[in-house]
Amino acid sequence: MKRFLALGLAAFFAMTAVLTGCSSTPEKIRIGEVTRSLFYAPQYVALEKGFFKEEGLEVELSTIPGGDKVMSALLSGGIEVALVGSETSIYVSQQGAADPVVNFAQLTQTDGTFLVSRTKMDDFTFDKLKGSVFLGQRKGGMPQMVGEYVLKKHNINPQGDLELIQNIEFKNIASSFASGTGAYVQLFEPEASRFEQEGIGHVVASFGKESGTVPYTVFMTKQSYIDSNAAAIQKFTNAVYKGQQWVASHSAKETADVIGKYFEQIDPKILETAVQRYLEQGSYATDPILDEKEWNQLQDIMDSAGELKQRAEYNKLVNTTFAIQSKEGK
Fold first, then answer.
1. What's 186's domain CATH number?
2. Are 58 and 195 within one domain?
3. pLDDT tens digits for range 247-274
4. Are residues 105 and 218 in the same domain?
5. Which segments does the entry list as coiled coil (predicted)?
């Protein structure tokens, strides 16, 4: 009897050890980011500081150029979470998707582009753009929509008051300007700071400051994934919030040092300058909550650009439950 009891206990403890080992195995989440950008600094900080691991997650990050390609990967199950502009979730909804793509954690809250002039000017006003050649961003993306929204705000007709170039691929815009195309260009960092350092161009305005707060880049996933993996999404959002808080409480240099491995081709000083620009204009969200006012501003910008078929319901495409719980420490 004792022998069988001992064997039974041994089997029980062995099974317990197996189950314990299984419960400690990190859950894996694959992220697809639309581009590699220091605009996403809090994400890289969360990775490098081990915030995802602290939450029991194993995160695999891949860069998938183009919002349409990121959405294809998400919808087909190639990734679990997409980091891309909120407008893509609206485009998917407009196409009648049965499984909505839901925004659950905001990463950036302003446009990240700057207006760069080929010539230095201390007295820049937007009316100087009239009659010029302006190298903008690709049509349908948030940078282009924000760019046109800001121009209209300053009484400039993007299609009539200047020559607007929008047929150059995102990855080639900076090099096109450097080779002589356009008198003005709309650029993200670190290209804007690099051009200033090299004397190629000069930052004269910020589209982020001009357009106000919007849910510019957001982590999103399918509703079906949230339904089946709510605990994992909560852990993910917790890690994002930790990254946001770390960036908000540290210097631009400290952040640049942490994320440097993701931008090995960029001069550390330029990286620091670019991070400082984004910090100063509040581009990095300090918490993951996407509020309804920001959502409405996004749709106003899309509507102004002619890219919005109908208004998208905030409560259908945005879920703030995880973000609020992260901020409240629950």
1. 3.40.190.10
2. no
3. 999 999 999 999 999 999 999 999 999 9
4. yes
5. none
Same domain for 57 and 42: yes
Query: Do 202 and 120 fall within a single domain?
Result: yes
At residue 21, the pLDDT reads: 39
> 149-173: string of b/e by CB count within 10 Å (b at 16+)?
bbbeeeebebeebbebbbebebeeb
Give the pLDDT mean for 136-163: 92
Same domain (yes/no): 100, 120: no
Same domain, 106 and 127: no
pTM: 0.88
At which residue do the structure tokens 């998400």 appear?
74
In the chain, DSSP assigns E strands to: 27-33, 57-63, 81-84, 101-108, 113-117, 133-135, 163-165, 184-188, 202-206, 217-222
Q: How many domains does the chain have?
A: 2
Convert the pLDDT of each residue in 99-148 to its tens digit.
Answer: 999 999 999 999 999 999 999 998 999 999 999 999 999 887 889 999 99
Sign of CA pseudo-dihedral 185, 188, 191, 193: positive
219 shares a domain with 285: yes
Rounded to whole angstroms, how far apart are CA atoms 102 and 144? 23
CA dist 12 and 22 (Å) reads: 15
Please give the DSSP secondary-structure letter assigned to residue 39: G
Beta-carbon count within 10 A of 127 CB: 11
